[in-house]
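Subject: Sanity check before I submit

Could someone independently write out the structure tokens for this chain? I want to compare against mine line by line before I put it in a report. The sequence has 501 residues.
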Amino acid sequence: MLSFFKNKKSTDNNQKKQSYESLKQEAEKSADYKQAFYKNPHTGAKFSLHFITTIIDGKILQEDLLPSLLSKDFHSFDDLKMLVPILDIQVSTDETQIEQKLYNGYTLLTMDASNRKFAFIATKNKIGRQVSQPEVEFSVVGPKEAFVESLSDNLNLIRKRLPIKELLVEEFNIGKLTHTRVVLIYLDGLVDEANVNTMRQRLRAIDFDQIIDSSFIEQIIADNGYSPFPQLLDSERPDRVASVLVEGKVAVMVDGSPHALIGPTTLVEFFNAYEDYFLNFYISSFLRLVRVFAVAFSILITPIYVAALTYHYELIPKDLMATLITSRQEIPLPPILEALFLELTIELLREAGARLPTKVGQTIGIVGGIVIGTASVEAGLTSNVLLILVALAALASFTTPVYRMGNTIRILRFPFIFFAQLWGLVGIVFCFCLLMGHLLQLTSLGRPFLEPLYPPRIKDLKDALIRFPFNKQASRPEFLRTNKPARFRPSEGKKKVDIDE
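---
Independent answer below. Compare away.
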């Protein structure tokens, strides 16, 4: 990467900026740097334009900038904002801004008579995909818009849903080399200032050379960077981000990333799909309980199989024992190796399906699973009972609506399997205690990660494992400590319109 900086001195952390002429010499080493010299035919004013051809919009340069400077009475920098039909025009004498502006799509304008004065004119070519449907958080009902890689477009999607002056956006430039635009979003007067200050402080404290995606931010500012659990909720849905902002949370967005980070968050939120709010509260509550059961089944069923066949034969019913004996009578492997073989096979199929092109990946997942599963049973490497259990566990893990939490669930099974092999059901309980101890210590922006389960908050249970009707959720979550706890008056939520009105 080209740089306009001089060599660093080992004893000085402050970098000394080069002069304008040295900056030009460094930029000329790159083939896409261009400079052009012009003279206004009416006033005789001489000026030059410097730009990077690969990141500017040539149409803006040819149709808006040059005609205005050559066909009108252009004398000095003071005339720019009146003559050029471009909103973002900055005049400065600070040479240290040249590198940042030039390589961010600005055209640099200089004049012979004003060597120490520069004008930066926004001519960036904005390339990106159009707003499309969510792919990770897809919903059958509800809005069908998802974030894209353009930060301006993403903020537009949020402001379209929250057209109020209280919605504030703070911008940061993070990354020594990338200078990535990162924004902090919250509702002023509603959000707890402690959450805003915590997030603001952590963003400013980031000391990293590149920020390419919001996942970089999540890993750097997480309360516990060594935990497999994500401590900030990521979402690609603008409607979900707007909803949590109204609850009193904060959001972080990164230019170039189609995902927003939401905090503080809790464990139960990772098992709640936003589509739940578009369905009847009976149905959404049932689906949430199904997801929780599916996650528990996915983590525990294989370890229980290993523990039961290794230590606890007496817990297996006689009828089922006959089936297990029949399925395992020709299996040369102990239950632990049999389980690990199938679990690792499932993980290989998942990873292969995710990395291959879409159509090929689907074929690998379906055909590969059938062929390998059938062949392993016929070859006597695994029992058909365990094959069914592992397949059901893999299917149950797919019910997790947040992808990052789904990855965490995938790896949690393996510690439970090893402890089940060591101490049977006691090992499973011991591993569960270790997991709960870890979760009890986790926080998100300093807030308890297990809330409202621990510390117990009865009011917040209205939108946790089950969802109460909207007219029963008159207050915002208590753990957010918002400045306006009440959403509406309960009497208004219960009010019904008379049929004669």
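---
OP: Matches mine. For the report I'm noting this point. Residues 69 and 190 are 48 Å apart (CA to CA).
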